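Retro notes - structure team

What went well: the batch runner handled both jobs without manual restarts.
What didn't: labels got mixed up in the shared folder, which is why I'm recording both outputs here explicitly, each with its sequence directly above its tokens.

Job 1
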Amino acid sequence: MKILYLETSSKNCSVAISDNGKLLCVSEEVSDNYKQSESLHTFAEWALEGAGISIKEIQAVSLGKGPGSYTGLRIGASSAKGFCYGLKIPLVAINSLETMIEPFLAQNYDYVIPMVDARRMEVYTAVYDGETGKELSQTEAKILDETSFEEFKDKKVLFVGDGAKKAQEILQLPNAEFNESIYPSAQYLVKKTLEKIENKEFEDIAYFEPFYLKDFHGVKKKKSTDS
């Protein structure tokens, strides 16, 4: 089964393709300018070319559904729906935080905690078992302070993601490690996607919405004060 994967929830615009569980190609770039609107379809074309298959051969689309950048998530969801409508294929959606922990499982960490930078001292985060990847606490928007995660002070914990930089500055956890260079990536959607397809856990394409976690806060324009 040939699957197209899209992950646009962060600064990493990421596309991957697999065939029967084997990763064929990844095309991605981390940019501070959030280039998803410019790059996503180009990356999809590159990934298809690199995998040596045509778009008509794709049998399902998997999307990193968030949490993360509101605009990035909307772009990813719109593209995923477009592919699914056009090709008449199913849509699978995976929590983007789960793609961040995949490379670090079974590496002697008690817990792996992904952190996506939100605003100020806030992060999107969840706690996962470091061995199995099982979710131990639900995804939440969490405001960090000196007492955050203190229940893990005697555990070996790895914090990953661009929100880990904030955490490292204030958390009082002597055994913790921090890796701020990790972003959600389409290449780590494969395992969870195959599980969902096996269980026929597909999204309703017409009504699917990304996992925003919080309401969008736009910048209000000041009213003119013409006298």
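Job 2
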Amino acid sequence: MTNDAAGWLDSAAIDPAVHALRPDYRALLLTAEGLRPGPSDELSERLLADAEQAARERFGDRPVEEHPHLAAWREAFRAFGAKPQRTRPSAEALLRRAPAGLPRVDRLTDIYNAISVAHVIPLGGEDLDHYVGAARLVRAEGDETFETTAGGEPVVEHPSPGEVVWRDEAGVTCRRWNWRQCTRTRLTHATTRAMFVLDALGPMDDTALKAAGDQLMEALTDASPGVTLASRLVGAAA
């Protein structure tokens, strides 16, 4: 359990091996304490509907993967051996679902999914109370544990050697940079303290990254009046 959100932000790090792979990578990390979790509601529904409409207007019938930011993410996935047509960057996976309707999961997940789609940026959230120690973005050795499910049953997987993963002291929290989160730290209806990761590559400049972070903070404040927020930019432009 991570008790000090400000200290947790200060301790987060990106390994030099990841910088070498993509020198243009930046992560905007945000912590939120005093959240009000629960099922999808009117506020999260409005955000998702607005994001769906924005995606329709932005892309029309054009392939979403041609967007410069998503194209850069596909290149980043290929650089560590992933096949983006099989394991897509999270923002691309969501945008592909937007025409038929984005998933409705719970109010906190819905909020960050809406911001991800609206700003064409990979964005994930984790429960800080289930995080163990510092967040580190590394290239995996291959023996790290990743807790997930298969066929509705809990299983433990291992990342491929060289795969880019977020991890803490207990194991991998997100595989393939932003592809899939583990079950241990996922947001639930009991989450009141969370961290969010906004992933940017070169085509998204710092102004656009900040705009996405600002909208996420605004939405979290609307959803949970009195929430305490903090953020830190980590990476090339930090």
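One thing worth noting from job 2: The chain has a mean pLDDT of 95.
We'll revisit the folder naming next retro.
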